[in-house]
Amino acid sequence: MRLTQCLGQYAIPFIISLYDYWRNHRSRQVDRYVPSQRFEKLPLQVVYSVSRRSFYYLTQSRFRGLIAAAFLSIGGLFASSFSAGTRSTYVCPIVLHSASRLRSYRLFNLFADSVILIGITELCRIGAQFDDARRKRALTFLGTGLLGLSLVWGVISFRVPDSSPELAGQPMLDLEYSRGAFSQSVLVVILVLSAWHMLPHFDILGVSIIGGFMIVYFSSLSALTEQSPFPFISLTHAILPLAASLTGTLLFLLARVVHDEEPKLYRTNVAMQILFAVLFGISLVFAVSKHRFEGIHPIEFLISNGQIQHHNYAAQASKSKTLGDAVTEYRRRYNQHPPPGFDEWYRYATSRSSVIIDDFDQIYHDLLPFRALAPEHIRAMTHELATNPFNDLGGIRIRNGTAMVQEGIKPTHAWMVAGAADMMKDFAKYLPDMDLVFNLNDEPRVAVPWEKISMLNRQTEMQEMIPENRVVQTWSTNREEGWAPIEPADQTNITVFTDGAWRGVFDPYVSAVCPPSSKARSQRIWNRHDICLSCVAPHSMGQFPLDFNVASEICHQPDLAFLHGLLISPASFKVSQELIPVFSQSALTGFNDILFPSPWNYIEKVKYQPTKEHPDPEYGHKKNSLYWLGSTSEGVSRFGEWKGMPRQRFAHLINNNTNNQVSVLLPADSNENSFRYEIMDGSAPTSDLHLQTAVHLADPIVRCSDCDEQATELSTAGWADFQAHWSHRFLFDLDGAGFSGRFLPFLHSHSLPLKTGLFRQWFDSRVTSWMHFVPVDIRLHGLWSTLAYFAGVPAPASEGNGPNAPKMRMKAHDRQGKWIAEEGRKWANTALRKEDMEIYFFRLLLEWGRLTDDQRDVLGFGH
Predict the structure, then answer these.
(1) Which residues cross the membrane (predicted)?
(2) In whole angstroms, what is the distance from residue 57 CA to residue 255 CA?
(3) Does residue 231 have a cis peptide bond before it, meaning omega lies within 30 degrees of 0?
(4) CA of residue 513 relative to chain centroid, distance
(5) How far is it, in rounded angstroms, from Cα 454 to Cα 513?
């Protein structure tokens, strides 16, 4: 079923015109063309004769309908090419056996739609010959047929498992799905009724031509209005489909006037011609007014903007120079007193040269809704969560300044909780007695609907800061008594989690964390063939993300439902829609997991450690290539779900994208004074632009029952030493089942990290896009343009090898690439050290200690 996402149709009017010719015109007698002598001068007579003969064939010959429909179909063909450079990276298989069916599906759909329209026409024609009762029966028969067809497709959609696996998690009568289906049904009913009333006057050819013009016109207008500045549509290219479709429509209407086929609708005919001409004029205004070229490459602006953003962040994040300053700034930011032990935290942070003292907004926002829950309720939930093995959670007990790992945790994941305990060993003595629950899975766990979390946040934001003279600066005594024992780890069977693994989770869980007015809640994108430009626009400048944190937000991007493994078919997804205290290493925007520094990074499961065999040379001495090697760990694929997962889409885009065209931003002149998006074959970036890549999925393909299909389509390579990354200039980072553990090692290297994904981590506000790394949209449509900017594009061999011949079509921006790589390396060694993880975790646990204290409303640090 998803193969139809790779198809397009624009030839239906022409097929119907063939039928119309065969049925109505092939044997009909028409007046023969009679030459006329009007001018004595030969040139004028030639022009007159050619024009008159052309007018005859276009409006009076048997082929007039074919000619009009041909113009319209040509316009549709040109209009369909508007999106050539905006094709989604959703995989349309090439090597698989299903690829050979693509043309068959296209032809079948084309002829099936045409046959249905022709059948309706014949039914209408037959019905017109009978009385009102029989015509009503004909209309009833038509309605019954359409209803039966919709029921058949409905059964197929819900019974065929691979029709839309990312939608498998939603109920049959899901509100958003039903709303979309109902609105489209209303449009179809209006269309059918309008066509039914037009058929007696215009016949099926007229209905298809007029309807086809409106479709071509509005699809072209939509493409032109969304062009800002991507995708690039030249003025000529913009005008051709509009002019061709208008020509075909006007020829059809004019032919009817010439033949006196519509005496009753003559005025309507003239009005329609005027209307269509006015619409064409409006579209011309849009086409001419659009910017054609970029005067400056967007990355130049984004790098400059990144510098400003980071400077502003660093200035406000470290304003405080003394403990008193830090206390004052804390109260100003968060409208409450710091927690007890804040002085110890300040000494801990400053003694370890922390450059971040004031900005811990992530902690504030993560914990804000918990302030609406009673401390005893939080403690009771912690016990229930930690003592049911089904929950896939692990606990830590802090008693008398010592952190102890819960016994009975899954052996395969115990290292994670042990790593968290190790992270707190140097400051645990300053923490109150409490229990903590950690997520053992890669996927996030807490997705509270927006309405509920907003209500909790409003309750807490209404709280006022108490006077300093009322502040209690010590933890409650006998805190240990408030915590029920979390050992043994299997003492309860109560759970708040539902299991959403192996099915789509966007509708039932993820979109619910967004406001009702957001696109994620109000819209569904069914088109996987093209990029959703309206989803991209809020966070992009052309193909380039303005900021990774904005680009990874869910709520304005409903198309993400089929573009990320977690949303399509997660390997594990035990999720709660109630607010519960779970600490996770990463989460999606809008989720309510409490983020903490990852033990994976803290204990250096993957480490930046160049060797003599695999050194880390300076940026300019590395291979000028993009490198990635990884497994298919993002989600589970059983019925082709892999086609939307970023890791597979990335490998396919780089190595096997011969079906789709891509759009690359390149210089419009040899001096690089302006730039424009050029559309080229999917393989051209490597074959013609000579961009170098080394991108492979690791063998074997995992988490799938369609592994053989993936291996055939994508191919694989063996694993390599992790330290082999450093020989490449550009390193790509993608999400796995959760966050990627490679990003921090990448930042520490002399290479330039390119990052895409949706998962958020504790340090996201600390690293700045285009200053410390290069963000790439998860749709990957801007990857080639980004790589072309930094790697450079050699001049084509056709431009010659003489002394004046250009050596580069686009120069490599090595200075900018090296600057970002080195700024990222410097910042990682300054603000993303193991010490910084401890400092963040220390402050987070002080805040959590206060939240779970019965005196929390008066607890604080006074200075």
Answers:
(1) 63-85, 105-126, 138-160, 180-199, 204-224, 230-258, 270-288
(2) 10
(3) yes
(4) 17
(5) 10
Task: Give tens-digit pLDDT for 729-741.
Answer: 999 999 999 999 9
For 460-494, b/e burial (b = at least 16 CB within 10 A) is beeeeeeeeeebbbebbeebeebbeebeebebbee
DSSP state of 671: T
Distance of CA 233 to the CA centre of its chain: 23
Separation between Cα atoms, residue 397 and residue 439, nearest integer Å: 15
> Could you count the other beta carbons within 10 Å of the beta carbon of residue 756?
24
Instruction: Match 């991108």 to its residue by tokens.
Output: 695
Would you give the DSSP letter of residue 832? Answer: S
Rounded mean pLDDT of 215-221?
Answer: 83
Does 3 have pLDDT greater than 50? no
Assign 156 a pLDDT band (cuts: 50, 70, 90).
low
Contacts of 141 by beta carbon, 8 Å cutoff, 6+ apart: 123
Tens digits of per-residue pLDDT, 479-495? 999 999 999 999 999 99
pTM: 0.87
Give the pair of three-digit tokens for residue 475.
Answer: 């933890």
146 in the same domain as 20: yes
- Greater confidence (798 vs 616) lies with 616
81 and 152 belong to one structural domain: yes
227: left (phi over 0), alpha (psi -120 to 50) or beta: beta
Q: Most distant CA pair in the chain: distance in Å?
A: 116
Strand partners, 583: 438, 594
Please give the Cα distance from 759 to 775 (Å, whole number).
13
**Residue 224 falls inside a structural domain:** yes
Chain mean position to CA 105 = 27
CB 420 within 8 A of CB 393: no
Residue ending a domain, choose from 289, 321, 339 = 289
- pLDDT tens-digit readout, 629-653: 999 999 999 999 999 999 999 999 9
Domain end point (choices 289, 321, 350): 289
Q: What are phi and psi of 750, to 5 degrees?
A: -85, 0
Same domain, 556 and 610: no
Between residues 681 and 657, the one the model is more confident about: 681
The pLDDT, as a whole number, for residue 77 is 84
- Residue 121, H or E segment: helix 102-128
- What is the rounded distance in angstroms from the CA atom of residue 492 to the CA atom of residue 495? 9
- Rounded CA gap, 194 and 444, in Å? 49
- In a domain, residue 322? The reply is yes
Q: How many helices (H) and strands (E) does the chain have?
A: 27, 19
Total domains in the chain come to: 3
Considering the domain boundaries, does residue 39 fall inside one?
no
68: CB partners within 8 A, 6+ apart: 17, 58, 209, 248, 249, 251, 252, 255
Per-residue model confidence (pLDDT) at position 812: 96
Structure tokens at 87: 């094709």
Residue 6 has pLDDT above 60, yes or no: no
Domain of 517?
Answer: 304-601+844-851
Query: Residues 584-603: what's their mean pLDDT?
Result: 98
- Residues 407 and 488: beta-carbon distance below 8 Å: yes
Pick the more confident residue, 571 or 65.
571
Residue 673 CB burial class (10 angstroms; 0-12, 13-18, ≥19):
exposed
Q: In terms of residues, how long is the chain? A: 863
Is 856 a domain residue? Answer: no
In sequence order, which residues have a C-beta less than 8 Å from that of residue 772 and are 6 or more positions away? Answer: 310, 747, 820, 823, 824, 827, 828
